[in-house]
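Q: I have 239 residues here and want to know how they pack in 3D. Can you give me a structure?
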Amino acid sequence: YPMGDEYWRIWRDSDGRREPLQRNLRLLGFGRPTLIDLPYEQTGVVPDNDWKRAFVRRFGGDPIWYPGDMINMSIGAGDMLVTPLQAAVAYSAVANGGTVYAPRVALRVQEPDGDLVRRIRPRVVGHLPFSLPDLAFVRQALRGVVGEDGTAASAFAGFPLHRVPVGGKTGTADPKANDREDHSWFAAMAPVDEPRYVVVAIVEEAGFGSVTAAPVVRRILEGLFDLPIADLHLGEAAD
C-alpha cells in the first residue's frame, strides 16, 4: 500500500505527466493485445486518470483519480483487467530475463514423416526496463510463495521443490457481482532458477487462488516434469 501511494504522489507531483506504474504494466504486456495468432483477443485494462474520466463520462461516478485508485492497482485490484494469456506473457518475460514475446499457437510445421517444413519463429515485441538482478529478485520472491510460509504452501505440500523449484503467485479476483464467488488465479514458472515453463490457471468462481488454481497448476507441472501425481483436494467452491 505505501508503494501504491508513492506511485500516486509521483503522478500528482508531475501534474499527471509521470505514471511509472502504468508504464511498467504496459511494458509487461498488460492493457494491450499480446498479438497471439488467434482472433478476438481482449486487451484488458490498465486504469489511469484518463481512463477513469472516460469511464465516468459514460457510466457516471466520481472522476477524481484518488490515492486509493493507485493503491488498489499496486496489488492488482481495482479496475485492473487481465487475461490469463497476458499474465503468461508477463511471467515469461520475468522468467527469460526481460524479453517480451508475442505468443504463438504452433512451434513448427512438419511432414507426417517428421521432416521439418517451417519453424515458427518467435516474435519480440518489447523489453522490460529492469536489470537482471532485479528480475532475479522477483523470481526468488515468487519462490517464497510456494514455500512453507507462502500463500500456496498447502497446494505444494509434498511437491519435490528441491528437484523442481517453483515460483508463483496466488490471486483472488473480484467478479464485480455480489452473488458470485471470487475467481481463483495462480501463475507459476519452473524451474525458477532457470525457467523452462510458465503455467497460468484461472478457475471462475472457485474461491482463493491457493485453494483451486494453485493445485491445478501443480498438477500440470507434475505432468511436465514427469513427477508422481499427487492426490489433491480442491476447494469447496470448485466444481
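Q: Anything worth noting?
A: The first strand starts at residue 99 and ends at 102. Residues 121 and 161 are 32 Å apart (CA to CA).
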